[in-house]
Amino acid sequence: MRTQVVIIGAGPAGLLLGRLLELQGIETVILERKSRDYVLGRIRAGVLEEGTVELLERAGAAQRLHAEGLVHGGVELSFGGERHRFDFKKLIGRTVTVYGQTEVTHDLMDARDASGAHSIYEVDDVSLHGFDGASPTVRYVKDGVGHEIACDFIAGCDGFHGVSRASVPATALTTYERAYPFGWLGVLVEKPPVSDELIYANHERGFALCSQRSHTRSRYYVQVPVEERVQDWSDDRFWDELRQRLDPETAERLQTGPSIEKSVAPLRSFVAEPLRFGRLFLAGDAAHIVPPTGAKGLNLAVHDVGLLANALIEFYRERSETGIAHYSARALLHIWNAERFSWWMTSILHRLPELDDFGRRLQRAEFDHLRQSDAAASAFAENYTGKAGSRLQLGPA
Ligand code: RFL
Ligand code: PHB
């Protein structure tokens, strides 16, 4: 088989790239290790930046998002039971949209199916070859039979544990990493959200987050030690812990019920540089991870893909390699700003084991600074809504 671009991974990054290329007449094949249902069963992100919504519109996959997504004009931070609302709309004229990653993935899969583009699920032993030359190939096994696809480019959109980054010689990669000694225990519940907007809470028992998927479905998280096991957390234990970390008024309003999903996600900051190796590109979680505190992971994956799609379209349309040559540096500029913001938000909101009294007072001082200063609140709003990163430009080469 031959195609123009082989995309490894059918997460949001791979599916969106496929869609943006396909709309410009560029042929792609997507190879995914898991089944469609498995991919759609993963509960992950929930907050979309305006730039992400715009790219989904360009991909022709935003109809349901506009009908069902919830536009939020701000978020609340709560410190030791004191809440403060940050009005993004008023501060900087921007909003975010609450719409689950599962739904984004669903919409992109439906759009791809409707166009007849080729996706192959449940493939094993994917391997990448010859990407340092002009004729790369990708091999895989499907139902016990080996196959090979010849292509012009390979897009590694296969997440943190994928094969693409692992195929690059170690000497060609530099990685930067910080693992946190805690994770988020998340619960999905068929109950109306406790508040119209998200509440991020710093409490001496640990961080908590009140999020949502719709007017009738809520998503809640509490910080737990990273080695914590889900089976040790009954629903009752989770609701008790969450209530204790919220201000009394919110705790009182919280509607609880049986969890429909419960899982622990470890927190990590990670960047691999560069993002291009000859004719192989990395995009999304394959290249970088942020702790979920800033709601940046999915948005960052989408931003990478926007740049990569433009670079490949420019290559096929104009035979120009400029976009391809700049892809890695352009994406990294944006990635490092999101890493910085996600790390900062994580550090001011969590109970860090190494935090002494001085550190705790500094966390409080950060909150007070944000409450007192419109400039600080606007900087927070710019970063949370994605406005900050969107203005970063590469300097002259
Ligand atoms: P994905 O979604 O991991 O998809 C990669 C796909 O590649 C497949 N794959 C392979 N396929 C073929 N061969 C192989 N060898 C393969 N190895 C892997 C996988 O099966 C998978 O289908 O990466 P992608 O597309 O880069 O998307 C990234 C996002 O999923 C991720 O950044 C976000 O979910 C992070 N995230 C959040 N991001 C936000 O922007 N806003 C949020 O509010 C937000 N909340 C979160 C989050 C992540 C969380 N967890 C569970 C880590 C909340 C949580 C709890
Ligand atoms: C979510 O709804 O899953 C969510 C929202 C905001 C975050 C992280 C996760 O910062």
What is this structure's SSE topology?
Blueprint: E1 5-8, H1 12-22, E2 28-31, H2 36-41, E3 47-48, H3 50-58, H4 63-68, E4 70-72, E5 74-79, E6 82-87, H5 88-92, E7 96-98, H6 101-115, E8 118-120, E9 124-129, E10 137-142, E11 145-150, E12 153-156, E13 174-189, E14 199-202, E15 208-212, E16 218-225, H7 235-245, H8 248-253, E17 259-273, E18 276-277, E19 280-282, E20 288-289, H9 297-318, H10 322-349, H11 357-372, H12 374-385, H13 387-390
Parallel strand pairs: 1-2, 1-12, 2-8, 5-14, 12-19
Antiparallel strand pairs: 3-7, 4-7, 5-6, 9-10, 10-11, 13-16, 13-17, 14-15, 15-16, 17-20, 18-19
Helix pairs in contact: 1-6, 1-9, 9-10, 11-12
The structure holds 8-demethyl-8-dimethylamino-flavin-adenine-dinucleotide and P-hydroxybenzoic acid.
Describe this structure in words.
Helices cover 38% and strands 27% of the residues. It is an alpha+beta fold. It has a domain of 236 residues: 3-Layer(bba) Sandwich (FAD/NAD(P)-binding domain), CATH 3.50.50. The strands form 4 sheets. An 8-stranded mixed sheet has the order 6-5-14-15-16-13-17-20. It has a 6-stranded mixed sheet with strand order 8-2-1-12-19-18. A 3-stranded antiparallel sheet has the order 3-7-4. It is globular and about 60 Å long. Bound molecules: 8-demethyl-8-dimethylamino-flavin-adenine-dinucleotide and P-hydroxybenzoic acid. P-hydroxybenzoic acid (PHB) binds next to loops. P-hydroxybenzoic acid binds next to loops.
Distance between the termini: 38 Å
Beta fraction of the residues?
25-35%
Helix content: 25-40%
What is the chains' assembly state? Answer: single chain
